[in-house]
Structures are given as structure tokens and as C-alpha cells.
Amino acid sequence: MRFIELFAGIGGFRYGLEKANDTIAERTQQGVQQGSKNNPITIKSFLGTKQFTCVYANEWDKYACQIYRKHYGKKELIEGDITRISAESIPDHDFLTAGFPCPSYSTAGKRKGFEDPRGIVFFEICRIAEVKKPALLLLENVKGLLNHDGGNTFRIILYSLSKLGYDCEWEVLNSKNFGVPQNRERVFIIGHLRGTGGQKIFPIGGTNGKGDESDERQTVNCITAGQGKTQNDGTYLINSKFPHQQDYVHNQNGILRTLPSGCHGNAQHYTKTLINNRIRRLTPIECERLQGFPDGWTEGISDSQRYKCLGNAVTTNVITEIGSKLGARTKGKFIND
Q1: For the chain, what is the mean pLDDT?
Q2: Going along 201-334, which residue ranges are E strands?
């Protein structure tokens, strides 16, 4: 399945979907071994084949682009303002992904919605989808998008996608249910182009489809380690810093609050140890773990930019799970041979 990544940041959608390639293959192999009744041709198409292949990415933040190129090279990434890029210049694709800017809808921002230039970039997604007609869309934004302006903003989004021929489903998913100890609620929207036979994907992730948690997945609570040290025993080794920041501190077995962009200056991103109750700022590596990236993913830029890029990123574990569901239910229909 050829996909593009708009507002690509440091490659969260791409990392998550490419990781889903392995998950799909593993699950399919397990099905074969357990005597699955799946069509043998479909099984064969899954094994040894990349379900998701990135053919294009766009991002305008130079620091995020630097990290993206470090991991994926220059071939797919086009750096620059999406409003200045013609839809016709974008390669044909089956699947469009986008975590479009959220400050316009977030409770942490001024919530100006479509009155904010960052809010109207949603219509750039529509512009590209209208021309390229991908069979699937996967969009991500803050939970506040659902109730912004009394729900009118979300209604406009759904109406706009419907006019383009997309039937949408959506669900609020929390990162803490996908193997990372971060309370990060995001709404994910999947658009199915009418006539392509798309199957329903949601609900997943232990919710009832309305954003209410019905169960929690196993989380990896111990993500911290001492400055410059690797974590191998699940303990907290905290350097003493900022002892006055007590209001937003969590204990070592707790779930951290949402990482925002620029979290390097936010009191809620300090964590507490049982050793003398000392607290300190999370390291960039710890923030990488909270978003499901490998250690050192954002190395090469300043720490302040690393925090910002990670706060803007999508939790990759969630994308992997969604991708695994999508890959299984499309049954190889869009796979490139």
C-alpha cells in the first residue's frame, strides 16, 4: 500500500506503519501455523511483502526535516510549505496520513479553530485528496477537536470529507493503552473512499468507540534512567533538579501527562523518584520512549528542538496497531507487487 505522510514531523506515521509491516507478517505467519482458513493466495501476498511503502512526505520545520532525512534519506521528503505544493506533483498513493497541526483545537492553546492559519491547513488535506483520491485516509488530532466550537468544527471536517466521497469513522485512543506510560488522548479519523470496499477498523485499543476506556493494555511504566545511563533494571535514577516543581510530579509507577510541543519548559514533565523525593526534567531519550521511538531517534539537533519535535509527534505504537488492523482488513488489495 503506497502511502504519503503530510505534516510528517520526525516520521511518526512512517515509523509506525513500517513497523506494522513486521506485525502483519508475524500475525499472518501465526495464522498459517495455527491452521488458518484464510485464502492461501492472500496469505502468500502478506508474507515477504511490505504492506506499507512510503512514496512521499512533506514537512516545513527544518529541525524535524533534519531528523526525518537522517533516518529515511532525501528521496521521499519534500521540505516546505504544503500550501505551495501542487497536488498534481504528489505521487499517486493508496493511503494518505496526516497529523495536522493541533494548537487551534487544543485546550492548551487559544482554540481559534479555522480562524487560526494553523487550523485551516486541514483543507490542504482535502485539496490533495480531491485530486489524488486515495482509497484511505488516516488523520490525527487532539481530542478537543471533537467539541471545538460546540462540535461545529468536527462537523465541518466530516462534511468536507463526505463531499469528497469519504465515509469516516473515528475513535479517541489513549497512548497509555498501547505500551507507553503517557496519558495522551488523540482522535483518529479513518476515511474510506466510497466504492473501494473499505472495512470498518474501529473500535480498537480497549475503548467502546466513544472514547471511554473499557480496559487498559499493559504499559511499560519504567521509561526513565539516570542522565547518560541506560535503563536495564526498571529503576529510577534521578538527578536532583527543580525541587520547587511539585504540582505536576508523578510517581515512578504512574502514567505521565501528555507531552506537548516545547515540553522542555513545562512543569508537568518532571517525574518523581522514591529516592529522597527528588525530581528532574525528563531527558530527550525518555520522551522518545514515551512516543514509541527508538532511543536516540532525535539526536543531532539541540535538546530544545528535540523536545519540541517529540511533543509534536504522534505516538508510533498507536499507528502500528491501526496499521496492523488496516493491513489485515484490506487483504493485500493495495499491495504493490
Answers
A1: 76
A2: 270-272, 279-281
